[in-house]
Amino acid sequence: MSTLKTEENGQIIVELPTNSGSTLFEDITREGLTQIVNLFPETWIFLMGLFGGHAWVLILTVFMTLTFIVDLSFRKFIYYLNKYFDDKEKLFLKTISIASKTPVSFYIWLSASALALNTVILTFPYFNDLITYVSATKSSLALISVAWFAIRWVNQIETYVKSLEEDSRWDPVSMEAMVKIFKLTVFIITSLFVLSSFGINLTALLAFGGMGGIAVGFAAKDLLGNFIGGFIIYMDKPFKVGDWIRSPDKNIEGTVENIGWRVTKVRTFDKRPLYIPNGTFSVISIENPSRMLNRRIKEIVGVRYDDIKQVANITGAIKQMLITHQDIDANQTIIVNLNSFGASTVDILVYTFTKTTNWVRYHEIKEVILLEIAKIIDNHGAEIAYPTQTLHINKTSQENVDI
After folding, report:
1. Same domain membership, residue 284 and residue 299
2. Most Cβ neighbours (<10 Å): which of 138, 153, 202, 227?
3. Apex CA 116: angle with CA 115 and CA 122, to 5°?
């Protein structure tokens, strides 16, 4: 029970509930409260009178006030620490301070709440049986605080690594996979410790989970298939977030927005979201145009049959123009040749590659190339053909018909 005790030397001792599982924060708070009482004994006795002699109410009030001050001081400390790390450009160390702010603050209030609750329980013996549950809950929440910090820290590290664009050693897809695996591991370990703190037999639980896992595996094979598919995507990395992908086997084309454990979100070019189960990617072919080295221009240009004598000169001039053009990759295949005789055109194949892979810039270059080809044809006195038909009429002598 929470009381004030005066010893023979006049020192006032604060008697708060104690247990073997008390935290360092609780011990420091208990000692600090005792020192405050000894510094201002008359004030403390006066306050006791205001609270009707209920020491536990006064202790809780002062105790929660001190907790608020400690928490506020901690948050201010983190604020100035982050500013220091920014000034010194120690961004990795800043990830620790950012990640610790909320979990540590939660832990401070958790310890305060646990001690306050124990104080109330011991003041009213009727609730003494609840102390064991309070202690177990406090231990569980303390473990959750540690897990919370670990998850927040790994999130901060992921953000920090992704900001290192010049460092090619870090692959964003692999980093995202490691973060998700770490989070899953933290969740499983924390869950096991929490269950253990409430006295649950983990051996029996794991044995039951092993037998139940077989049944669940058969019942949720599609879900497990999608989970494994997501893992394979992270390992093989056929695409990453931001890539343009398409499949010749399915009506899939768009930009990857998110790769989850179960589904991958693709934004189609008409801005609709497309959610694809990860298991699908193990049975279809995927093209990744985002990883192309060049973009291809492949066009058939038809000239008139009347200009067939100029075809060789035209193809030579077009090829020379492509070789010297600044936006065309001369190290790639360039083909400009007579390709076939069409119904009304002499067809010339133009086959080359641009240096850019940007979709918009590619079409701008393609427009310039096609206009240059039209100019070359015109400079050689030829014309681009269009579908025509020539009708030959034989003139015959008009016969006189007697009527």
Report:
1. no
2. 138
3. 85
